[in-house]
Amino acid sequence: MSVLTVPTPGSSLRWLAADSWTIARRDLVHWVRNPAVIVSSVTFPVMFVLLFGFVFGSAITVPGGGDYREFLMPGMFAQAMVNGAAATVAVVAADQARGVTDRFRSMPVSRGAFLIGRSIADLNNSVLDLAVLMGCGLLVGWVTRTGPLETLAAVALLLLLRFAMIWVGIFLGLVVTQEAAGLAWAPLFPLTMVANTFVAPEQMPGWLGAVADWNPLSATVGAIRVLFGNAGAVTSATASWPAQHALFLAIAWPVLIVAVFLPLAVRRYRAVSR
Q: Are 137 and 49 in contact (CB under 8 A)?
């Protein structure tokens, strides 16, 4: 006589964690075995640092004074975290086109493991991207002028932004075709440019500066400039409300994005090939 085993909450969580790590490890192995992806993900932001830092930087002034490359690097860190969503879209769309997503759905795998594993793998990749970019920043003159706790808080905000964009990427990757996924960078480009990434919003036309102020990317950039103690950190009481509350918005925006796109990604994943 067989005994029906009812999974407990603890065993279900262990099952989810084990399956999620297995899928994350599979994604990380694929990433390591494809060095072209690693090189391209690192090369693009490094080229932007050199282009803006040494070519255009001499023509741009920093509000309140200071070195432009020091002003630039926090923006480059945040831009890299946002642009990583394009890679997430491409990988998820490719898995779906090759039938990998359907195979995982047909296997005795915890239902949320595929999505959680993907997010873990992408977040790990982003840590390496950020480390390389910070190393590049140190070489061109960027420094953090605060203590280790503030620096770690700034890195945490950057990874929080990346985590939010992972869920945007997963959802879009489940929606678009593999061919369309190659254009995922197109909507990200204006998002990263119309922000305080390269110039301060007050140096833009009034309406464009207002858009840049409320850009979620601007909140993270503004907050980490303060935490790093870098040039361009907003401390004036006459600054716009988003600029004065950048730290709050740097947490609120990613949390809101996750709250919207994580359920959408889960719903879409459940509907795939149904």
A: yes
pLDDT by position in tens, the chain (length 274): 444 444 555 566 776 777 777 777 877 777 767 766 666 667 777 777 777 777 766 667 787 778 888 898 999 999 999 988 888 998 888 888 888 777 777 776 777 788 888 899 889 888 988 998 898 888 888 999 999 999 999 999 999 999 999 999 999 999 988 778 777 777 888 888 899 998 888 888 888 999 999 999 999 999 999 999 998 887 676 678 999 999 999 999 999 999 999 999 989 988 875 5
- Which amino acid, one-letter code, is at 10? G
Q: Helix-strand-coil percent breakdown of the chain, rounded to 5?
A: 75, 0, 25
Pick the closest to residue 133 from 30, 224, 215, 65 (CA basis): 224
| Cβ-Cβ contacts under 8 Å for 235 (sequence gap 6 or more) | 226
Contact 230, 65 (CB under 8 A): no
Q: Which two tokens stand for residue 202?
A: 């007050």
> 271 near 174, Cβ under 8 Å?
no
